């Protein structure tokens, strides 16, 4: 397993990390992802560690804390062998203060996550989303306190816009506080908006990307193709409306290209899609999920090979979309804005 630097930090993480949103199945939404109990979760953790994948991602909101609890039990007596990231910001109870990134909520959320995970520190603590109602200074000063107290080792953000992330980095620099070393972001062959602003920002400011939903909300599993009905066991029956929208014809065009490359390489469609991501700028780690042992073993093989430049170009062109303004304008002037222009343009 290849290890990469996590942004502008000294922490090295595996290029594949394991997402534990499939642990617990606490409601219908998360049951569509998976419902691994402690026994199955422990087996999946074992398989990850056997493959030198030691980075496990969860969140307080995943099955209302059940994912954290099950992960904590699955890593018992081997905490020193694993890296854990968890997240806070989303609602975790009744009342006006049981959500967001305020000092009030974050301190409680962190303590609750530590208790559920059965640990006294979190390796990477992500803000799960932007809280526009809380001053950024309040959020970052609280996170800095958690870092200096030893309860959190590194901090990251998730689902931020470019200006939210840049403003946060500037404030951290101004006060000498801990800075976001990673942005956990949606990025896939059918979701490339990340490249328009967040990737150039990550390159310029050395913010590593941990990718969530690298298979496009389950659309790049190889089961969805042109003129074929949605498989009966697809989670999209229950979660499609909550994920990123994708035009059907665009999806089929990308899958057609994936099928071609899959035949050339001898690997599967999802393995090719994950391998493409592993070669993208700023990507430190790709969060893979698995409902069962078979899916996990297949996903782990996605970094056993390397796509050729020609294969990458084929996938790039099939998945290319015209960006919104001002990006389409900036891309016309590669000499002046090299970081903002994809390499294939």
Could you please describe the fold and organization of this structure?
The chain contains 13 helices and ten strands. The protein has 345 residues and is an alpha/beta fold. The two termini are 31 Å apart. The mean pLDDT is 93.
Describe what is shown at a glance:
The two termini are 31 Å apart. The protein has helices spanning 28-33, 38-50, 66-74, 103-117, 136-148, 162-175, 198-205, 236-239, 248-265, 269-278, 293-300, 309-319, 327-330, and strands at 3-5, 12-14, 16-19, 55-57, 83-88, 122-127, 152-158, 180-186, 208-212, 283-288. Helix 2 (38-50) packs across helix 3 (66-74) and helix 4 (103-117) runs parallel beside helix 5.
State the shape.
Answer: globular
Subunit organisation of the chains: single chain
Mean pLDDT across the residues is 93
- Unreliable stretches: none
Strand/helix succession: EEEHHEHEHEHEHEHEHHHEHHH
| DSSP summary: helix tally | 13
Strand content: 5-15%
**Gap from first CA to last CA:** 31 Å
CATH superfamily: NADP-dependent oxidoreductase domain
CATH domain topology: TIM Barrel
CATH architecture: Alpha-Beta Barrel
Strand ordering within the main sheet = 3-4-5-6-7-8-9-10
């Amino acid at each position: 397993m290849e290890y990469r630097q996590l942004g502008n930090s000294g922490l090295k993480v595996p290029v594949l990390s394991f997402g534990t949103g499939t642990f617990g199945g606490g409601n219908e939404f998360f049951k569509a992802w998976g419902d691994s109990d402690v026994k199955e979760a422990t087996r999946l953790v074992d398989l990850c560690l056997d493959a030198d994948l030691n980075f496990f991602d969860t969140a307080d909101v995943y099955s209302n804390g059940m994912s954290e609890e099950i992960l904590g039990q699955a890593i018992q007596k081997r905490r020193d062998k694993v890296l854990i990231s968890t997240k806070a910001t989303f609602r975790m109870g009744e009342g006006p203060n049981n959500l967001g990134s305020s000092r009030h909520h974050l301190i409680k959320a962190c303590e609750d996550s530590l208790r559920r995970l059965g640990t006294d520190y979190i390796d990477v603590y992500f803000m799960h989303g932007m809280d526009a109602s809380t001053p950024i200074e309040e959020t970052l000063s609280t996170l800095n306190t958690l870092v200096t107290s030893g309860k959190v080792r590194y901090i990251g953000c998730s689902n931020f816009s470019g200006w939210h992330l840049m403003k946060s980095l500037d404030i951290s620099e101004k006060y000498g506080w801990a800075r976001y070393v990673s942005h956990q972001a949606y990025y896939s062959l059918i979701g490339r908006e990340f490249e328009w602003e967040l990737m150039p920002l990550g390159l310029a400011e050395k913010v590593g990307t941990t990718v969530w939903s690298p298979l496009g909300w389950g659309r790049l599993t190889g089961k969805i193709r042109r003129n074929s009905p949605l498989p009966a066991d697809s989670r999209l029956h229950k979660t499609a409306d909550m994920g990123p929208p994708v035009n059907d014809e665009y999806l089929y065009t990308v899958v057609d290209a994936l099928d071609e490359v899959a035949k050339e390489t001898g690997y599967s469609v999802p393995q090719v899609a994950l391998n493409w991501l592993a070669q993208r700028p700023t990507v430190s780690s790709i969060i893979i999920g698995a409902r069962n042992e078979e899916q996990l073993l297949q996903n782990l093989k996605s970094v056993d090979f390397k796509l050729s430049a020609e294969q990458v170009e084929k996938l790039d062109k099939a998945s290319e979309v015209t960006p919104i303004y001002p990006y389409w304008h900036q891309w016309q002037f590669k000499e002046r804005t090299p970081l903002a222009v994809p390499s294939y343009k």
